[in-house]
Amino acid sequence: MMFPSKITTCLLVLAVYMASPSESTITCGTVTSTLARCIGYLTNSGSLPSDCCVGVKSLNQMAQTTPDRRQVCECLKSAAKDITGLNTDLVATLPTTCGVSVPYPIRFSTNCDTISTAV
Question: Which InterPro entries does the entry mention (predicted)?
Fold first, then answer.
């Protein structure tokens, strides 16, 4: 009788291991605090601080799953509504300016549900 319980245990472990995460582990608070140093630059009121690019690179490293990338997208779109004077051209080119390759456009019109980790 021990044999069936071991099979069941193995199947459960395999199912948990193979399941892809369906929820993001990144909060909007993390997104906004990580990129807070970029606001002056993105509103044409300052030069690009190195801390901004550190934040961009850090956020890119954190967002390695499809749910995380979608969450970051939604958080950025939500936060952008509260920031007066954002320069959309600077926003769109910020990842490239900081040396980060993002496989989707950075625009306020981006449909976050279409973002995935697949290239």
Answer: Bifun_inhib/LTP/seed_sf, Bifunc_inhib/LTP/seed_store, Plant_nsLTP
Task: Give burial (CB, 10 Å; 0-12/13-18/19+) of 106.
Answer: middle
Its pTM stands at 0.77
Distance CA 8, CA 43 (A): 57
Domain that holds residue 64: 26-104
Alpha-carbon distance values, 91 to 71, 80, 94 (Å): 17, 10, 5
Write the CATH number for 58: 1.10.110.10
pLDDT in tens, 11-52: 333 333 334 456 889 999 999 999 999 999 999 988 999 999
